[in-house]
Request: fold
Amino acid sequence: EQFENATKVYKRLLATNEANAEYHFYYGGAMGMWAKNASRFKALGLLDDVKFHLKKAAELDSKHVEVRWALVQLYTELPGIIGGSLSTARDYAGQLLKISPVDGYLATGYIEEYDKEFKDAEVSYKKAIKAGGSATTYLKLANLYATKMNREADAVKTLQEAYKVHKDPKLLAELKKLDS
Reply:
């Protein structure tokens, strides 16, 4: 949680190799977390550097999944007046889709859920389940049903299906939350 200090360390690391995508990712990510927890004035001062370093990491490594996720979140959550853009977020989700279909569908679902396009988010999360079928994909869909769509029965059914496949205790815990 010491993001300001982390940026100092990552800046020195980046200075050793400016062509390293990971270094740009960690530096930009630490700055982004610092900005998220700082005053609005400080956050605005950091924003251009956050974008620069995350974009640079994506440019240097065409298959870097985590940086594209960071860019999806950044452009989705930022207000448009200071550079947020669902269109840009969707572009990065499209890049993710080419690299890792399950991540691409999850990212698209995330954007659609943020934009309150719950039916579109549902479609994307179902595609993520079909593409990857991890416990996370099922949890995303179940959470959408339970918290945004008022479809608790569908959430329960989704979690039950997931548990049959994964036997993950997190899935049982989520089921118990819905039952209480």
User: Anything to note?
Assistant: The chain has a mean pLDDT of 96.
